[in-house]
Amino acid sequence: MTDTDPADRDYRQLKRRSLWVAAPALAGVLALLALVSWKQGLLTATSPLYFMAGTATGIGHGMPVKLNGFVVGEVAAIELLPPSTQSAERVRVTLDIHRRYLAYVPRTTRARLSQEGVIGQAIIELVPQRYDARAIHAGELLPFERSRGLAEIATGLEARINPVLDNAQALTQRLADPDGDLHGLLAEGRRAAAGMAETNAQVQATMAETRQAVSALSGSAEASLRRVDRTLSTVERDIPVLLSDLKATAANAKLASESAARLATRSDEQVPRILDSAEQAAEQGNALVGDVRRLWPLRALARDRGDGLADSDSLDGVAVPLEPEP
Amino acid sequence: MSVVRPLLLLALSGLLGACATKPAAPPLQSRADDANRRGLEQLRQGEAERALASFERVLTLEQSIEREAGIARAWYNLSVAYQRLGRDADADRALDAVLLDDVRRYPPDQLAEIAFRKAVLAMARGDTGAATTALARTRQHCGEACDLAGPMLNLEARVALADARHDDALALLAEAADRNRRDPVEAANTARLQAATLLAVGRTAEAATAARSALQQDKALGHSERIYQDLMLLAQAASSPADRRAYLMRAGDVARARGDLVAVRRVAALLESAVSPPPTTPEGVP
């Protein structure tokens, strides 16, 4: 077989054509591989940063490292170092940080193990303490901390809520006590309201008489009648309110008189305490009113200076020396 | 053609530039600014408690975006709100939150404002040493063309007056009067301090003139507490018992109207003794 052999020539041509056909497919596969590598970060230059932890619990290989919410690297390695008397932190974690983000990490940064949201994934968060520090260099060691977990938060919350619940329970028991203040008050209120039925009937009668009187005036001028109608409707609207107020006032008066009688007859030892409390409340009320009155001139003292700062001048709260009292 | 085309492009660029709007502030910054405006308005309305809550919100927002100028502003405003509530120690601590931090983070003009406010609070509690220290720090943060130059002179004069350095106080106030011409509040403060200092050295006629000037300005500003002080200074500088009595009565009326019971008692005591000649050794004179 020679070079000029037609069969050999045909074979070489076929081979060349096959290569031309296969080349795009091959190029496509290579491009796909390159894309996947790039997406996986295999082609991204990284620099290592380290932190030491007491335990590797919660830290996993490949865990994302975030700065201001951006993924800037991942956990590359977790190693258990030999025992040392110098430090209890024997777990060394290596973070691979994408080199282009390294300049964004100041030297004051702390690494924090935290969770995104309540059920989100665990991440290593880079938390800069100040931004005016120099950028961190590859290979430096970061301080490490763990954010509080849900269990710890729940425990803290429980400790704070328990006393509140206890107080609420005690209050509920006091209110539910049939011999307690609230029930006595309600019972006396009901009795007093029942006594007002007669008064109610009298008021209703008066209202009916008013209506009759107004009817008698129907022959008067149209304008006067309209005014009277308006008056009557006002009376009708206001009477129930008035009646309700009357009931309440009567009930209060009755309660007050009964309480006063009880207090006077028993000479209850609680009386001085009640009076003291009332006096204190009155004093506090006076102080409150005084504070409010003192506050009103301050309205004039506050001026907006346009720079978002509240106004305060060189003698804010500083009086000049005044003539002393004789 | 070669000239026309660049010109057209330039004109088009100018037109587009003119149509461009200022980029909106990021949401958190806007929220912080809004809350701050709300707090200032509440302070203006005398609602110091609500203003305090607003400024606390501002501080949280500013800290969340680490906007240093906003953080310093929030601490300053919190300090004012605390002082309005009578919580002077908290007011001082709010300022320390900035002054004891890494001050390189904050703009110098705000540091100067905060240091000056610390000096004012120190003077309010009568601590002239702390006031002098804080004033020195204000000067350190204040540049050459500092807005606080006039107010600082007033406060320095007040410190000098408290230390019975009357000549120093008068010299500082002469300079302050020039510096504070355009600021009615500080100009009134200067006049009031001049009146008090002149009274302390026995120059009653000049003191009366200065006090009258202060009264006129404070009335225009509606500063009730300071109107009371001006009237008291005028009573002290009065040339006749009748004038003295009239000024004391006016001061008493102002004090009563604003509910200042301590001032009312002081005026009543002075009125009772008005038949005898007024004391010649006012506070601050040995």
Relative strand content of chain A: 15-25%
Give the N-to-C terminal Cα separation of chain A.
Answer: 138 Å
Biggest sheet descriptor of chain A:
8 strands, mixed
Helix content of chain B: over 70%
Query: What would you call the structural class of chain A?
Result: alpha/beta
Q: How many β strands of chain B by DSSP?
A: 0
User: What is the overall pLDDT average of chain A?
Assistant: 72
Q: Given the C-alpha coordinates, what overall shape of chain A results? A: elongated
Identify the quaternary structure here: heterodimer
User: How many alpha or pi helices of chain A?
Assistant: 8
| Residue share in β-strands of chain B | under 5%
Give me the number of helical elements of chain B.
14
Biggest interchain interface, per-side counts: A-B, 36 and 72 residues
Strand order of the largest sheet of chain A: 7-1-4-3-2-6-5-8
Largest sheet of chain B: none
Report low-confidence residues of chain B grouped into runs of 5 or more: 282-286
Order of helices and strands of chain A: HEEEEHEEEEHHHHHH
Question: What separation lies between the terminal Cα atoms of chain B?
Answer: 90 Å
Task: Report on this structure.
The complex is a heterodimer of chains A (326) and B (286). By secondary structure, chain A is of the alpha/beta class. Chain A is 54% helix and 15% strand. Chain A has an eight-stranded mixed beta sheet. Helix content of chain B is 76%, strand content 0%. Chain B is built from 14 helices and no strands. In chain B, helix 10 packs antiparallel against helix 11. Chain B is elongated. Residues 282-286 of chain B have low confidence and may be disordered. The chains are: A alpha/beta (326), B mainly alpha (286). At the A-B interface, helix 7 and helix 8 of A face helix 2, helix 4, helix 6, helix 8 and helix 10 of B.
